Amino acid sequence: MVTVPFINSNALWIRVFISRTFPAALVAILMFMSVIGQSFAQGLPPAPIIYSGTVTVGGTPVPDGFTIRGIAGEYVSSPVPVLNGEYELLTMNPGGLAPQRTEIVFLLENVPANEKDVFIVAGVPILKLSYHLTFPNLPGSTPTPTPVPSAAILTLTALGGSLLLLSFLMMRRKGGLSTNAQT
Fold it and tell me: Which of 3.30.310, 2.60.40, 1.20.58, 2.60.460 would CATH assign to domain 49-135?
């Protein structure tokens, strides 16, 4: 039988590695896994779902100036603007305001989108960067509020009208105004 010297030296190196380094690495891995296990037992905070995509009504892009927001349970996201028929980085992060599997509704101002999603609690952010939204119509024009006169203005107007009528009647009585046309 022929012996090769370098095989014996490599075998010694492997035995030393297994006897000294491997147990330390195994202990480190087990400690790391116990810390991760405790984190999951305590519950990780839910990570956000981040949406971006196009916004259309009847196949045409939504004009600039409108905003999109998402609603899940009691949570309402911050609105994001529509620019060039697209929206970017709509972040849904409801925390405890929306339980797992809550429906997400997307709104263009107050018009709901045809698409809906479901909130999923995850430990890492979920990116949906091509989430295209279509809407049945653009929001109607917001009516301009008509100012309602206050009670003080109404009282002064009525008092002014009464004084004008009273002065007209007094002038007529004194003969200041002639009702007969003289030719």
Answer: 2.60.40
Output the DSSP codes for the chain.
----HHHHHHHHHHHHIIIIIHHHHHHHHHHHHHHHHHHHHH-PPPPPEEEEEEEEETTEEPPTT-EEEEEETTEEPPPEE-BTTEEEEEEE--GGGS-TTEEEEEEETTEEEEEEEEE---SS-EEETT--EEESSPPPPPPPPPPPPPHHHHHHHHHHHHHHHHHHHHHHHHTSS--SPP-
Domains of the chain, by residue range, sit at 1-43, 49-135
Would the pTM of this model clear 0.85, i.e. be above it?
Answer: no
- The per-residue pLDDT for range 35-73, each reduced to its tens digit, is 555 555 456 667 889 999 999 998 899 999 899 999 998
